[in-house]
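hiii so um. not sure if this is the right channel but i have a protein structure encoded as tokens and i wanna go backwards to a sequence. like what aa goes where. can anyone help
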């Protein structure tokens, strides 16, 4: 059984995500990495670069429904490694963009962009003319990767190019051309990123008790 993605890239993405969210850095565990998230609905997550014997061994030790196991691979591949009782969650997609950063498109009329540095992250927000938040997300550059995370456009403002504008605005803050751009997309978001020149490295599956 082999990794679906470069384990070093995955570790760097996890570390950058932890830095951006103020979480402890990932630690090696069972052939993958553990991240202590301490959220109301998630105590910690274990992340693997692909199918590994350690996944089954780990799952046998877990009795906490707030512990998630994630793997680069399909949901079927991950479930095949699990003992009974584990349930598949929505599958995402680990994606990279190796081309030149996209040029920022003109903002749609009636929207304004605000960018701020908050801790280690650069946060971009698009506001509608009435002051309501229409779209937001953040990026952080750390240890050779430039990650995008929590890119969200509110339902009334979708299909207007706001996601594209947000990604371009965040991408423009990248300092090193050597940093690889990485994100995890939902099923819906994957189509947007593919249209912007991103590439799917692997499905990203999650299970929980």
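sure thing!! here u go:
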């Amino acid at each position: 059984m082999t990794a679906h993605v470069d384990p070093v890239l995955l570790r760097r993405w996890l570390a950058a995500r932890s830095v951006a969210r103020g979480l402890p850095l990932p630690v090696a565990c069972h052939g993958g990495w553990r991240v202590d998230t301490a959220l109301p609905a998630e105590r910690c997550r274990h992340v693997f670069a692909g199918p590994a014997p350690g996944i089954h061994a780990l799952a046998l030790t877990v009795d906490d429904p707030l512990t998630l196991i994630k793997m680069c691979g399909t949901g079927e591949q991950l479930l095949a490694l699990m003992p009974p009782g584990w349930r598949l969650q929505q599958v995402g997609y680990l994606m990279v963009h190796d081309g030149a950063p996209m040029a920022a498109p003109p903002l749609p009329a009636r929207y304004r962009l605000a960018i701020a540095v908050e801790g280690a992250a650069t946060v971009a927000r698009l506001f509608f003319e009435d002051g309501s938040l229409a779209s937001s997300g953040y990026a952080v550059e750390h240890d050779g990767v430039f990650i995008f995370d929590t890119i969200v456009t509110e339902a009334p403002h979708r299909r207007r190019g706001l996601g594209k504008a947000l990604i371009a605005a965040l991408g423009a803050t990248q300092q090193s051309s050597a940093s690889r751009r990485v994100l995890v997309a939902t099923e819906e978001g994957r189509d947007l990123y593919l249209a912007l020149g991103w590439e799917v490295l692997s499905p990203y599956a999650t299970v929980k008790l």
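oh and Residues 97-201 form a domain with the Aminopeptidase fold (CATH 3.40.630.30).
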